[in-house]
## 1
Amino acid sequence: MNIPILLLTALIPMVVGFIWYNPKVMGTMWMEASGMTEEKIRSGNMALTYGLSLVFAVLLSLMMHAIVIHQMHLDSIFGGMGESLEATKEYLDAQHAGWHENYRTFKHGLFHGTIAGFLFALPILATNALFEQKGFKYIFVNGAYWIITIALMGGVICQFA
């Protein structure tokens, strides 16, 4: 696991958010759909908001690593099982050397990130939005942001982590 890449990947939601929620892109639509105002934005504790957002992005990077790096799964099945599986571990390590880099491309990570965005992030966000009585414009703006963001995170993690 490449910790510097995971920390760098945690900046992707911030960078995409600065672009996506800019008033010239989707910011005006988001403010209208969410009921947000400039005054309300200025009244918030932005240091706390950005700080916690970064912490949550690090957690998301860790989760995306498990989703896009398929080779982790065999290690997790046999890891920590003690000496009884030493022969199995040696066999897996030898096999792992031959295919460790399979499917380790930006395109592959982007694909899995997009799937995670549609099948994981979007349903959670949409469910909350429905109970908060937000409209479909709100779901579209925020859902598309998270699908794009998670896709890019998956691509970078898969290529470099």
Note: The first helix runs from residue 3 to 9.
## 2
Amino acid sequence: MLTITVRGLPSSMTEQALTALFENHGKVRGLRMAKDLFSGECRGYAELQMEGHEARAAVAALNGHGAGPGMLLVRLGRDEPHRGGRGRRR
């Protein structure tokens, strides 16, 4: 099972629509979409879980896909925030 990170989703995106978009490439095993607490609208970010070969096919097909006003950024794995301090101190 691989995690797919999706960024650049329009605020009108629903879990059902996102699932339908990815299920063209395989079975979506899990979905977690960031939503605004008050409005319930999509905050532009989601994580999906799919089997390995299906996840790779979905990333290859949907990265750069136009959804709404922008383009989707679709990657394997979770986006980790950059943590400084890994380099040498001077």
Note: The chain is about 20% helix and 35% strand.
## 3
Amino acid sequence: MKQAIVNSFRRVKQWLQSLSFRTGVIVLMCCIPFYILSFAQMLLPISATAKGILWTVLFGLAKTFQYGGLTILGVEGYKRLKSKFKKNTRETAG
């Protein structure tokens, strides 16, 4: 049973890593609205229990998109994205 779960996770990880850089960036950026919603829902006039459940679900979705996007990008994609942001900030500053 444990080996079947490990193999399933391995297959999902391999599938995610086979997706394109652009897909990784899109999935990674999808975490932003869920982070915002997870805290903004605290302003709703609903019970504390409902707020706790909403926060857990929305924050969990944000983390899922974040880690999924990072898995798709991989180490090389992350370095590529980081250098792109550094290059843009140097161009605007200089």
Note: The radius of gyration is 17 Å.
